[in-house]
Amino acid sequence: MPDRHYIVVGGSKGIGLGLVERLVAAGDTVTVLSRSPGGIPQIAAVRHVPFDATRDEIPVADVPVALHGVAYCPGSLNLKSFKGLKPEIFREDFEVNVIGAVRVLQALLSPLKAGAQSSSSTSSVLLFSTVACGQGMFAHASIAASKGAIEGLTRSLAAEFSPEIRVNCIAPALTHTSLTEKFFADPAKAAAMGEKYPLGRTGTVDDLAAAGVFLLGPSSGWITGQVIGVDGGLSTIRK
Asked: Which of 32, 36, 85, 165 qualifies as a FRET site for 159, CA 20 to 30 Å off?
């Protein structure tokens, strides 16, 4: 039987679903907190709990006493020029990306500590930023502002939660998910975007899920407080 239990918030589609599938394949048990079941596997190792990160109370009664990891995957993508961004959009992005993560982690801190105490390794937290935090990009002001806060939160919580709980963050570039589907509607344009990356393509769910499962699991037991670019080299390389 699986002996590690993870919670994936927003795990019914996109990168979150990719994490769920990989965790289950590794023999772990996963509770998915999301608004709808989406594409999550209908198997005993996965449980879905209805949850909206922007408004619902954390369903503590549905959370195991001991948790070994939490991934917070909800996000937004309001790409507009600064003059077209009303303050309300900044607030909405901050609510989804930052306040939602804060509420989840405050509610699950005790189970994460219990998970570390009951096993021979640390528990872990996985958050998501964007390549646009480290590299200024046109029309990314709102998302970069909220994800920049996530990067600061990652480092602060890594310090505060150590040594029982590790906290890391992935900063992706353009990845093909339901949230970014409009950018991939035209195959020729999608291919042209991929050519701008040092590795010659945009990202896939599997690219991000593979890195995420590594950071959640015991194999990354000496990694914490890191913002790791999974971005095809875009943040550091020019060709």
From this structure: 32
